[in-house]
Amino acid sequence: MHGTDISPDDLSRLIDRIYEGAAEAVPWQQSLESLRSALRASYATLILRPAKPGDPGFMVNAGAISSGALDAYESTYYALDPFIALPVDEVHTVAEILGEAGWRESAFYQQFNAPLDIFHILGADLADAGGDCRLRICRPHGAPAFDAADKAFCARLLPHFKRALRLHGRLERSEVERRLYASAVERMRIGTLILDSRQQVLESNQAACELLAAGDGLFLLDGCLQASVRRDDLALQRLIAQASRERQGGGPQVAEAITLARPSGRAALGVVVQSLPGRNPAEGKQAQVAVFLRDPEQTASVPQQSLRQLFGFTPAEAALAAQLANGLSLEDASLRLNISRNTAKAHLRSIFGKAGVNRQSELACVLHSSVAFLCAEKPGE
């Protein structure tokens, strides 16, 4: 169907796909394919990050173009592209900007486009869309040129693309923040679980999965959390139900803590239950309750490299300090590191001086209150 003849329903579906594209694995792949079909084009491309020296950029393409051609553009031919820096938020053809003769004479056309049977190009550069974003639509030599109706149709879609691009940017930033915070919590050996309105687990991090897999004090039953000891389970279910009610009623996000005994006799698990903020409690699968778990016997490891950087420890001192921070005595740490007690004492005196403390308890406090735990461990440490 020609874009200018598109039905209201098809136009609505195309606009829906533009917004859905913000969350697609390959963003805007479906909407670009719909746009390419509507305009009877061979290719439709959204350049989200233009290529530049040392950076191939990022673009999404609809149409049967080879990966080799895309790689060639991103590595070489982008530098020859004259159809750039268009008047923002306006739709233009390559003939309008360069003239047909100028376009035919350009190295970009002769070396890249002509071999791919690309002659007619319709384009728009989008302002305030999270960067230098470009929309390009191409037709072959034998196809009719893009006309005023095609340009008007494309122009109607630009505001939707811009809003979707801004939405995509916010989603990307939120995902980056989520991964950042999740990795920090993971390094601190804190298990996290997200429950829905049916109190079933929606998400869990690695630390939580390991604790649940052990089944010692807490496990999953039909997707729901259950404590090993009945008395503890009654208390846990009460806290989860209370947090869910607070979430649905818009009440304060109060965190409640309990301990769960473990049948193995190991130290009890620490559990914190808290309601999550939300806007639409009618959604059954929406996150409603967060559960945080901590095994007191699973201490967060301190990356030795970060200790060397923060306190100026030598490699040997950092290795000893890391063991002490994990709760080992000086004797146990020296045995684990295969060093003599006298050597360990010498290292400890130097560590005290550099950390500005006089006792091991003070050292543990300084190390645990530092940012060392937020650094990722390097392989081999």
UniProtKB/TrEMBL annotation:
Gene Ontology biological process terms in this record: regulation of DNA-templated transcription
Signal peptide boundaries: none
Domain HTH luxR-type: 310-367
Family annotation (SUPFAM superfamilies): C-terminal effector domain of the bipartite response regulators
Domain of life from the UniProt record: Bacteria
One Gene Ontology MF term: DNA binding
One Pfam assignment: GerE
Listed name of the protein: LuxR family transcriptional regulator
Lineage of source species: Bacteria, Pseudomonadati, Pseudomonadota, Gammaproteobacteria, Pseudomonadales
